[in-house]
TrEMBL record:
NCBIfam families: ADOP (TIGR03434), perm_prefix_1 (NF038403). The chain crosses the membrane at residues 114-138, 360-383, 410-432, 452-477, 498-525, 782-809, 830-852, 872-894. One of its GO terms (molecular function) is transmembrane transporter activity. InterPro entries: ABC3_permease_C (IPR003838), ADOP (IPR017800), MacB_PCD (IPR025857), Macrolide_Exporter_MacB (IPR050250), Perm_prefix_1 (IPR047928). It is a multi-pass membrane protein. Keywords: Cell membrane, Membrane, Transmembrane, Transmembrane helix. The lineage of its organism: Bacteria, Pseudomonadati, Acidobacteriota, Terriglobia, Terriglobales. GO terms for cellular component: plasma membrane. It holds the Pfam family FtsX. It is found in: Cell membrane. Residues 367-481, 789-899 form the ABC3 transporter permease C-terminal domain. This is ABC transporter permease.
Length: 908
């Protein structure tokens, strides 16, 4: 045992000795690095001590003090050489050389300010745009929500197997909710239900968007309140409320003493216990929310679930388990679920990824092209400057600098430029990153926040290093092996054609990438102009609409509700400045209406059989709807007010409906019906007695956009709104001025009919806004702006690169051009001699760009309604690029042609 212990001690000692021998030089190196000034002073003192000691010995041997000191210094050698040996011994020489290279690179940049500024600016635009897009992707797709473990929060929905492209949420009764929480895949569940509550007690009832949530909201989402506290389990059954930041600002003016005050909603006093922070909106994902109340105060006890999965559980794994639960729930409450469905579990960020993922990918690819153009431009500038430095580099090589030493120096200069460009570009990126969010506010989560974070800064640093190597490698390889004998014989006269060929290659790359960006910009602008000028089939100008809730009263029948809605419509029509007013439910163009099941309804025509289901949109409107929106009547008539109030037996169809389903028949007098108009037993729906019976088509109206701007008009049936009434409706009105200025008059008019009647959202929306909130409108507007900016920057950088190339070509051939002019060459010949190679390169670059543009047409067709290969786009782009490039070539070439040949020859 004693021998074993001794062996272990010996092995341990050897191990410690090995570690110590490894750590000792590292400690010495680190100490010398962080105490560099002190180390230099110590080395100088040590060397001086030895010199003094040797001088004393020489004085003792009979030399004079001055001669002894001189002899001692000769024996020890130069002090700087001894310092260099010391640095090499402790491993600091590479760092000192790197520091010297960095200092020299700054001096070199200072001596060439125009080239330095141009190179840094080129990279700043490229790195700034690329970092900005990375920031947008990170902030809106990878980390858009301020919730704890947001990547594990999922939103379960149902997909009807007949129409799986339309997901729908499902609500759970309290018993179902308690059962669902026990699923093995679930860590916790947040239940919520949305409702609009009136703020009572004032002159007019204000509409407040309320989320009734389970009291575990604070622990589930992990977001601390800005003021007070969030909801907690002890708040169940209590009359408390938590305000959103926007509502707190709008209603209370940001008063920080709001905690403890009461707010009256629907004649019930609630105590304010907290205010959520500005970034927490809980809005786009679930609806418009102004306040949060414990769900026990809700009239409806059904809850929509948000689920936080256990760590390691994927949405696909949860699908199978949840399917069994929801199948059991369907048997308990069949009206809450479709006939044939499957459960689909998706992360809460999935809708935004699906909506914006391809768009952000295209924008990121575009800024990478801009970055490559900037890198090519920097390579052109460094190659041009490098040719002028061949004599300097040859001298360095002649006195002993090897290729690695020269390459390192050139790469350090490139990295200095790239880091300076990255610093400027990173500052620029936080402004650029806001542009997509401002141009497409409805496309991204409202909780997404552009901010400085270490991931974005790290990306910018890595990008700076990569770009520095990328654009600096070609000049470093080119100039790290200068022809010493040739350069020393004739300075500046014999630079080879290799550098010029490299310049032309970079110019061709710049022109090709610029052509692609300009082509995409042309397609984006053309597509947006096409959308702006397309025929809508209705006139949205000065048309506003308001949404009003209808409070259910079990003592009122369908006729009473229809009469009440008519009274409200008449009140809107009497507002001064309103020329037409109409009622419409789910009939806000140009979007597809949101009917009770969220998709087109099936229908049938009397006397016609179809093997496949036929689908149509159903708009529930009053007869004044067509005049208000100026939708033309093509044939027949519109139903009258008596028919409208009864809600039965009549219908009007659009032109597309006739062309698709009644092209061989006279549409007037045909009978149509839809089972989707029947009452399914839900208390929120009120229908006429014969809502699902046959209806006679009495008129045909023109097509109005109803399925978005990018798709054809969908077949549509218009029926009286009293056929099927929900718990709310819309009133459309045509005004003589901006409709949004009528909110006060409209509230007064509705208040005169019913003091408790409120307007949802307390605002007037316009059909112009509805048009501009369309996804394709927002997307094409953003594309047209951003790609125009990208294309303009790319063109500017390319032109600067062309001018640099021509100036370099003229400079390297200055002696030759001087001789030509002295012998009588015409200036036009000089211009052609200088610029012809670059013009040929530009032509090749345009041809390459045209080829790439045509190759990308199928890919870009996903985003661009206009063809990027259309001659109406390619011809102007080619002409613009040719004209601008020719101008960039000719200006410096003409300058060279007008140089004085005698001065040129004298200088050389």
């Amino acid at each position: 045992m004693g021998g074993d212990d001794e062996c272990r001690r010996l092995r341990s000692g050897r191990h410690r000795g090995g570690v110590m021998s490894l750590l000792s030089p590292i400690r010495s190196w680190w100490h010398a690095l962080i105490h560099r000034a002190r180390t230099n002073h110590d080395v100088e003192e040590e060397l001086q001590f030895h010199i003094d000691m040797r001088a004393q010995q020489l004085i003792a041997s009979g030399l004079t003090p001055k001669e002894a000191t001189r002899q001692a210094k000769i024996e020890f050698g130069f002090v700087d050489v001894q310092k260099e040996k010391y640095r090499t011994a402790i491993g600091l020489r590479p760092l000192y050389e790197l520091g010297a290279d960095i200092r020299y690179s700054f001096r070199s940049l200072y001596r060439n300010p125009l080239i330095s500024i141009a190179a840094v600016a080129s990279l700043a635009f490229g790195i700034g745009a690329t970092s900005a897009m990375f920031n947008v992707i990170y902030s809106t797709v990878l980390n858009p929500f301020p919730y704890a473990d947001a990547d594990r929060i999922v939103n379960p929905s149902l997909l009807d197997r007949k129409q799986p492209q339309v997901p729908t949420w499902f609500a759970l009764e309290p018993a179902q909710y308690e059962s669902f929480v026990k699923a093995k895949s679930i860590e916790s569940v947040l239940g919520f239900m949305l409702a609009a509550q009136p703020e009572t007690g004032g002159a007019f009832p204000e509409d407040v968007g309320v989320a009734f949530v389970t009291p575990n909201m604070n622990s589930f989402l992990g977001v601390r309140a800005l003021l007070g506290r969030g909801l907690q389990m002890s708040d169940a059954g209590q009359n408390v409320i938590v305000l959103s930041y926007k509502y707190w600002q709008r209603r209370f003016g940001g008063d920080r003493n709001v905690i403890g005050r009461t707010l009256e909603l629907d004649h019930q006093n609630l105590t304010i216990i907290g205010v959520m922070p500005a970034r927490f909106t809980f809005t786009e994902t679930v609806g418009n929310v102004d306040a949060y109340i414990p769900w026990t105060a809700a009239r409806s006890q059904a809850l929509f679930p948000w689920i936080k999965l256990r760590s390691g559980v994927t949405p696909e794994m949860a699908d199978a388990e949840f399917q069994g639960y929801v199948n059991a729930f369907k048997r308990q409450t069949p009206t809450h679920f479709p006939d044939d469905f499957r459960v689909d579990v998706q992360p809460i960020a999935a809708p935004y990824i699906h909506r914006t993922g391809h768009t952000l990918a295209l924008l990121f690819a575009s800024v990478v092209c801009l970055l490559l153009i900037g890198c090519a431009n920097c390579s052109v500038l460094l190659l041009s400057r490098g040719e002028a430095r061949l004599h300097e580099l040859s001298i360095r090589s002649a006195i002993g600098a090897d290729r690695f030493r020269l390459m390192r120096q050139l790469l350090v200069e490139s990295l200095t430029i790239s880091i300076a460009g990255a610093a400027l570009g990173t500052a620029l990126s936080f402004w650029l990153a806001e542009l997509p969010l401002k141009l497409m506010p409805n496309m991204f989560p409202q909780e997404a926040s552009i901010s400085i974070n270490w991931l974005v800064l790290g990306f910018s640093i890595v990008l700076a290093l990569l770009t520095g190597v990328l654009f600096g490698l070609a000049p470093a390889l080119r100039f790290s092996r200068p022809d010493v004998s040739q350069m020393m014989q004739a300075r500046g006269r014999t630079s080879s054609d290799t550098g010029f060929r490299s310049l032309n290659a970079f110019i061709a790359v710049q022109i090709a990438l610029t052509f692609i960006l300009l082509g995409v910009a042309g397609a984006a602008v053309t597509g947006f102009m096409h959308i702006r000028s397309m025929t809508l089939g209705y006139d949205p100008h000065n048309v506003g609409f308001i949404s009003v809730p209808l409070k259910r009263d079990p003592n009122k029948n369908q006729q009473a509700y229809a009469n009440y809605v008519d009274q409200l419509r008449d009140a809107v029509a009497t507002v001064p400045g309103v020329s037409f007013a109409a009622t419409g439910s789910g009939a806000i163009p140009p979007s597809q209406p949101f009917d009770r099941i969220g998709r087109p309804l099936t229908f049938e025509l009397l006397g016609q059989e179809s093997k496949l289901p036929q689908h149509t949109l159903v708009h529930l409107v009053s007869p004044e709807y067509f005049a208000t929106l100026r939708i033309p009547l093509l044939r027949g008539r519109i139903w009258n007010r008596d028919e409208n109030r009864n809600g039965d037996f009549v219908a009007v169809v659009n032109e597309t409906f006739v062309q698709r389903y009644l092209s061989e028949y006279d549409p007037i007098g045909q009978q149509v019906r839809s089972d989707g108009l029947k009452n399914d037993g839900r208390p929120a729906n009120i229908t006429s007695p014969h809502s699902g019976d046959w209806r006679q088509i009495v008129g045909v109206v023109g097509d109005a956009r109803n399925d978005g701007l990018e798709r054809p008009v969908f077949p549509t049936i218009y029926v009286p709104y009293s056929t099927f009434m929900w718990d709310g409706t819309c009133f459309f009105f045509r005004a003589e001025t901006d409709p949004q200025g009528f909110i006060r008059q409209l509230r007064s008019a509705l208040h005169a009919v019913n003091p408790d009647q409120r307007i949802r959202g307390n605002r007037v929306e316009t059909l112009d806004d509805a048009l501009q909130h369309q996804t394709v409108w927002i997307q094409q507007h953003m594309f047209s702006v951003l790609f125009s900016v990208f294309g303009g920057l790319a063109l500017l950088l390319s032109l600067f690169g062309i001018m640099s190339t021509i100036l370099f070509a003229a400079g390297r051939r200055k002696n030759e051009l001087g001789i030509r002019m002295a012998l009588g060459a015409r200036r036009s010949h000089i211009v052609w001699t200088v610029s012809r190679t670059t013009l040929t390169t530009i032509t090749c670059g345009i041809a390459a760009g045209l080829t790439l543009n045509l190759a990308l047409r199928k890919l870009l067709a996903h985003w661009m309604p206009a063809n990027n290969h259309s001659p109406w786009i390619l011809t102007p782009v080619t002409s613009l690029l040719l004209a601008a490039s020719a101008m960039a070539c000719l200006l410096p070439a003409i300058r060279a042609a007008y140089a004085n040949p005698l001065e040129t020859l004298r200088d050389n």
